[in-house]
Amino acid sequence: MRPRSLLTLWLVALTLLGGCASVPVTTAPKLDAPWIPSAPAVIAAMLEAAGVGARDTVYDLGCGEGEIVIAAAQRGARGVGVDLDPERIVNARRNAARAGVTDRVTFVVQDLFTTDVSPASVVTLYLGPDVNRRLRPKLLRELRPGSRVVSHDFSMGDWEPERTIPVPQAPGHVVYLWRVPPR
Ligand SMILES: C[S@@+](CC[C@H](N)C(=O)[O-])C[C@H]1O[C@@H](n2cnc3c(N)ncnc32)[C@H](O)[C@@H]1O
Q1: What integer pLDDT is reported at residue 25 of this predicted model?
Q2: pLDDT of residue 19
């Protein structure tokens, strides 16, 4: 190889390396709960407990791949799914397209603690007891009185649920229902 070609090769290699060094390193988001989808029977029980229908706007905080939001849209509601993991949101949008409900659902990559939940009439959760407790003041502050909150398996500290509903098709699983009180 001639010295000039060698020099060109060296310059190309340096440019590529330089380019690599400037590529942003993507780190996995720090999640408050792992991704474990609710079973279809539990989702049905959550939506039934909240009486979700066409007049509702359902927010699933930590929506995973969108199953709850999509099921709510299939009952005529509007749905918003929020998840910190971008891969979940990509797949949620794909699932919504497959279910034919893209006109009624929105999925956003966001930390659920920063999401404005004031447009919701129903909030669904499958997170954990500690996350629920931390969320409670925000839910009570932002949601309109009468809005419903349903949680798969996890309670909300000393906020007593209006109903605790076992799911016979998913033994050991329960759904909690709360209603935001008048201010
Ligand atoms: C147990 S999964 C529940 C998925 C779905 N809601 C369901 O019930 O099928 C919890 C989800 O919360 C998401 N998550 C965890 N921490 C979060 C945060 N701070 N903000 C938004 N999403 C979060 C995870 O990525 C995961 O998809």
Answers
A1: 60
A2: 39
Q: Which residues of the chain have pLDDT under 70?
A: 1-26
Rounded distance between C-alpha atoms, residue 88 and residue 65, angstroms: 5
Answer whether 111 contacts ligand 1 (Cβ < 6 A).
Answer: yes
Distance, in Å, from the CA atom of 111 to the CA atom of 32, rounded to the nearest integer, reads: 9
Please give the model's pTM, rounded to 2 decimal places.
0.88
What letter represents residue 90's amino acid? V
Phi/psi region, residue 78 (left: phi>0; alpha: psi -120 to 50; beta: rest), is beta
Q: Which atom of ligand 1 is nearest to the CA of 60?
A: 6
CATH of span 40-179: 3.40.50.150
Instruction: Give the containing element (helix H, strand E) for 105.
Output: strand 105-109
Reduce the DSSP state of residue 71 to 3 states and report it: helix
Spacing, Cα 134 to ligand 1 middle (Å) = 15
CB of 83 shorter than 6 A to ligand 1 = yes
Is 64's C-beta closer than 6 angstroms to any atom of ligand 1? Answer: yes
What residue spans define the domains of the chain?
40-179
Provide the residue count of the chain.
183
